[in-house]
Amino acid sequence: MNNRITQLFNIDYPIIQAGMVWASGWKLASAVSNAGGLGLIGAGSMYPNVLREHIQKCKAATNKPFGVNLPLLYPDIEQHIQIIIQEKVPIVFTSAGNPKTWTNILKEKGITVVHVVSSSLFAQKAEAAGCDAVVAEGFEAGGHNGREETTTLVLIPIVRNAIKIPLIAAGGIATGKQMLATMILGAEGVQIGSRFVCTPEASSHLSFKQAVINAKEGDTMLSMKKVVPVRLLKNHFFDEIKQAELNGATEEQLKNLLGKGRAKKGMFEGDMNEGELEIGQVSALIKEIKPADKVVKEIWDEFLMCKSANL
Fold first, then answer.
1. Domains along the sequence of the chain with CATH
2. Where are the beta strands (DSSP E) in the chain?
């Protein structure tokens, strides 16, 4: 396919692997890029020296374009920015913060900048800040989410009408049929997270991958809206948070209950009871672990088949 997204990133297919904490290291990013999509290293769970190592290993593992996903609220953001510039990373996806702060600095270095949003208002702000494209992420998505709770199939056409720059859809997408649906509504590419968690290349713990495969409809829920909204797989920790919220817990009480390293404990170390398990609603459709290149191929082949059949 030749459209604004494939041209912008110089990739074969408009399929972007989301930069997920504790899942998206250099192995996954390079595998997706080698398969013709765009792989992203998730910097949100990395110290600066670890990020540099992953970028260097990714460059050694692929000669295709790849990028870094960078949460703008990360405490070591300035060091991350400098490492990205020094290592000549070609593409950066920013999230969780004001794109005005760093977009111009990155673009001055020749870096393509994309910002993740959950509303048309923030999409317009990203466009005004000079971003090259936006990812519009619906309520179904895993991990940190928008407070508006707008679903992907509603969000995409609204954002499409609000901006002129290229639009990437995210949230609740794991198949070619779902990809086609979002592109009919105005997206020019898709960003997929949960499906790529269940690959051998993802750095997440095998127990977490197995829990995702076993997930059924209704097994995830948006939580902690008083702090930072996040979609979680239900477990003992989720139940504690839910009960605290029902009891009227304050933001400070919820932060204390969350503590530090909770996502690492669950997603990376494999504690399925006390860990924070960030995953999307589409986990109910994921039934097996398979290599990232096969995931890309299956999504793309199904997209082409459905498109040609006018499904």
1. 4-203+286-308 (3.20.20.70), 206-282 (no CATH)
2. 15-17, 39-42, 66-71, 91-95, 112-117, 133-137, 143-144, 167-170, 189-192, 220-223, 230-233
